[in-house]
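User: I'll paste a sequence; please echo it back and then give the predicted structure.

Assistant: Echoing your sequence first, then the prediction.
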Amino acid sequence: MSNFYVYAFISKTDNKTVRYIGKGSGNRMADDTGRRYLVPQKNRKKVAKGLTEQEAFTLERFLIALYGRLDLKSGTLTNLTDGGEGSSGYVFTEEQKKEA
């Protein structure tokens, strides 16, 4: 089924720096459940849609590698993983949210 998409959260400070890349379906991009950082809806952009889940995972991994992660000092993203199946459905604990 091709109902997945890849999305980006854009910095609310400069409105151009990509800060997060994610994969979703349905309302995931707009849903703040489990998010460490809140981003205005206007700063959430779909990068690609109509993807299979595997295509979405592949694009997510590619874009995270392209933009790089802040925690690895390799780029601008707040992502804590390289994307793909290992992080699918992960929900942060309240403790993790407080530490962020």
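Residues 53-67 form the longest helix (15 residues). DSSP finds two helices and three strands in the chain.
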